[in-house]
Amino acid sequence: MANRLSADTPLVVASHNKGKIREIKDLLGHYGLSIKTATELDLEEPEETGTTFEANAELKAMAAAKATGLPALADDSGFAVDALDGDPGIYSARWAGPDRDFAQAMRNVEEKLQALGATTPEKRSCRFVAVLCLAWPDGETRFFRGEVEGLAVWPPRGEKGFGYDPMFQPEGFDITFGEMEPDQKHGWKPGEETALSHRSRAFKLFADACLEG
After folding, report:
1. pLDDT tens across 109-142, in order?
2. What is the DSSP letter of 143?
3. Per-domain residue ranges for the chain?
4. Which of 81, 161, 162, 204 is the most buried (most CB within 10 A)?
5. Are 139 and 62 a contacting pair, CB within 8 Å?
6. Annotated binding site for Mg(2+), which residues?
7. Which residue out of 26, 76, 85, 174 is catalytically annotated?
8. Which residues are annotated as a binding site?
C-alpha cells in the first residue's frame, strides 16, 4: 500500500453531504487528484452506528473503499456545546431531522440552552470537531482530527457555509462561520502553517501525512 497519494491518484470522497463535498473538494483542489464522490458513484450511505467521530468516519470510508476498490476519504463532524454535555456532537445531522433542516436544528440547540439559562457568553462555549478517515480497500485506515473553539450565538448570522455555521462564532472573531467567505473560514492553503476551521485543521494533518504536491 502506498503511504501517500500522488497527483492523478483516484480518491473517493465518501459523502453525500453537498456542503462537505464542496469544502473537501476546495481543500483537495491544489493536489490534482482524480476525485469521485459517493453521490456520483451512487454508493449506498452506511448507517452511522459508531459512538465516536472516528468510528463513524471509518464506517463511511471503509464502505466506500470496499465498494470501489479505491482509497476513500470520509469526514465525520459535528457541533459540540459544553452546556449540553457535548450535544449534538456525533448526532448533529440527526438533530436536523430527515429533511436536514439545520434551521430547525439550530433552534433545537437554542431552546435547550435557553431552558438551562445559558444566555451569557461564558455559558455558551462550544466547538466544531472534524475527523477525517483515509481508508484503503485492504482495510488500512488513518485518522486526522481537527477542532476549533467558539461561542454559540443567537440569532444565527450569515448565509454562507452550511449546517450550524450561522450560530458558530470562532474564538478571536466577531463574525460567524456563516458570515465568512470559504477562504477565510478555511484559513489555510497548502504550505501554510495555520488553519481556522475544524475541517481545514484536520485536512492540514491529512495533507502533511498523505498528499504530494
Report:
1. 999 999 999 999 999 999 999 999 999 999 999 9
2. E
3. 11-210
4. 81
5. yes
6. 47, 76
7. 76
8. 15-20, 47, 76-77, 162-165, 185, 198-199
pLDDT digits (tens, 9 = 90+) for 178-196: 999 988 998 877 777 788 9
Strand 125-135, strand 34-37: pairing = unpaired
Cell 450561522 belongs to which residue?
166
Cell reading at 5: 497519494
**pLDDT over 50 at 1, yes or no:** no
| Pure H helices in 117-159 | none
Q: How many CB atoms lie within 10 A of CB 129?
A: 22
Q: How many other C-beta atoms can be found within 10 angstroms of the C-beta atom of residue 146?
A: 23
Q: Which amino acid is at 92?
A: S
Name the residue type at position 62: M
Q: 11-210, what's its fold?
A: Maf protein (3.90.950)
Assign 186 to helix, strand or coil.
Answer: helix
Contact status, residue 11 vs residue 71, Cβ threshold 8 Å: yes
Helix 198-210, helix 18-28: angle, nearest 10:
40
Amino acid at 80: A
pTM for the whole structure: 0.93
Burial environment of residue 202 by CB neighbours within 10 A (0 to 12, 13 to 18, 19 or more):
buried
Distance CA 153, CA 81 (A): 11
Our answer to whether residue 8 is catalytic in this structure is no
Per the annotation, binding residues for substrate are: 15-20, 77, 162-165, 185, 198-199
